[in-house]
Amino acid sequence: FTPGTVMSFTLLLKDSCKRFSINLQTGKPGLDSDVALHLNPRLELRHTVLNSKKSGVWGEEEKFPLAVISEDGHGSQVFIEGKTVQIIIKAEPAHFQVRIFTDIMMNNLLNLFLWFIDHRQW
């Protein structure tokens, strides 16, 4: 996953979904692998956690609300049980861009929000 490449996930969240995670691991696969990006929406807590792990140590969690305000001023929940969501992760030289689109907004390709995760210390 080198700078300039993109990964796309389209997920249908089950009605019973309380949380899920996407981990971009580095090195050899396994439980002790470093994690360059940990994306963990926690529906029951109404926030998404971003983090990374190096040498077995997790960094400080960054929390973002599940509900965001779009450009027209309306509130929108990003992860909704029973709905489709698209997650696009783009590798940049020193960070990741994470874009999240809901099924309602996918036709307009409205960028609901954008996170920059800086991993220059790696």
From TrEMBL:
The keyword Acetylation does not apply. Residues 1-122 form the Galectin domain. It comes from the Eukaryota. Coiled coil: none annotated. PROSITE patterns: GALECTIN (PS51304). The keyword Protein transport does not apply. One of its GO terms (molecular function) is carbohydrate binding. Pfam families: Gal-bind_lectin (PF00337). SUPFAM superfamilies: Concanavalin A-like lectins/glucanases (SSF49899). Keywords: Lectin. PANTHER family: GALECTIN (PTHR11346:SF147). This is Galectin.
